[in-house]
Amino acid sequence: MSKQHQYRASISSVPKNTLQPLWSVMIPTYNCANYLRETLSSVLAQDPGADVMQIEVVDDHSTKDDPEAVVRELAGNRVSFYRQPQNVGHTKNFNTCLQRSRGKLIHILHGDDCVRQWFYVKMQQAFNDKPEVGAAFCRHIFINEQSHWQFISELLQPKSGLLNNWLEDIIVKQYIQTPSIVVRREVYESLGGFDSRFKFYYEDWEMWVRIATQYAVWYEVEPLAAYRLRSASNSGHSIRTGENMQDVRKGIEIVQSYLPNYLSHAIVNKLLNQNREHSALCALNTAQQMLSIGDVETVTNQIQEALKCSHSFTIIKLAVKLFLKKTVRQILKPVNTLIES
What are the chain's domains? Predict the structure, then answer.
């Protein structure tokens, strides 16, 4: 086993005597049962039947709620439930989803996200039309904790179809949210599961890059999936600590080790430098938002991580500007408190 592959879970093929449905909708959860009802309802509304679609909730040993109770109340025995014996972290829980799946097409749907009508029909059509497609994803909607639309992901091309130069594009920027993508099971069997070196973030991007090195990818222009933004999630915690950006740098290092097998070193370095600058800009944008609500700890962590990610003139200039704003705000805070009192 190569050094790279030792961090990827092995995804075995489905035994020949096992009934293999077309779909496996695998729903990883952790302390999000209050959203699970909406998630399950969005899937069950499109349920073609147990012979065609496996639906299973895989819980990472939740401690604050009871997702199994939600499953039984809403779906009875139609939806399977598996609980990890102990908390294993979301990346390993994702891999458990892959290992427990039986379908030819796998959809990992976070327990707080949902799909819109026609998601499964449209995705199935993409795979039927283009046998060479290894994965298909759609435009998606970002929703808040109250399920209100916030914004829609950018339109990558005017019509649904195969993406051209997709490997180069996905290297530069994360365009995909996990609930919006479906992957053939045989792709995971060939490439392995999600890389265990990631703690909170970017393990999905590394997987989409890995897939793009060897398979065609289909894009559906209709926004048929919804990704929930919430502060209490794993991603919300990692943003506060800056660990999200640490995982970004880790991801860049990982893909840099194998991308020269598919693109020239010069192109790889150019694209990854663009990723570094884009990721650093995202961190500084986050810092700017957090500064407006007085979250100094998050501001500091995001500025520091942005500068570790990119040393471009643009990033340094924006980071210094934000740092000065933060410093002035901290100096004026006790003065404002005295005035108000």
Answer: 17-230 (3.90.550.10), 240-340 (no CATH)
Burial level of 121, CB count in 10 A (0-12/13-18/19+)?
exposed
Q: Rounded CA gap, 262 and 251, in Å?
A: 17
In sequence order, which ranges of 192-312 are alpha helices (DSSP H)?
Answer: 203-212, 234-241, 243-258, 265-292, 296-309
Local confidence band at 194 (pLDDT 50, 70, 90 cut-offs): very high
The lowest-confidence range among 46-60, 244-258, 315-329 is 315-329
Q: How far apart are the first and last CA of the chain?
A: 66
Rounded to whole angstroms, the Cα distance separating 305 from 249 reads 9
Residue 336: pLDDT over 90 = no
Cα 147 from Cα 250, distance rounded (Å): 32
Adjacent-strand bridge partners of 56: 26, 80
Count of residues in the chain: 341
pLDDT value for 334: 59
- The pLDDT of 267-295, averaged and rounded, is 94
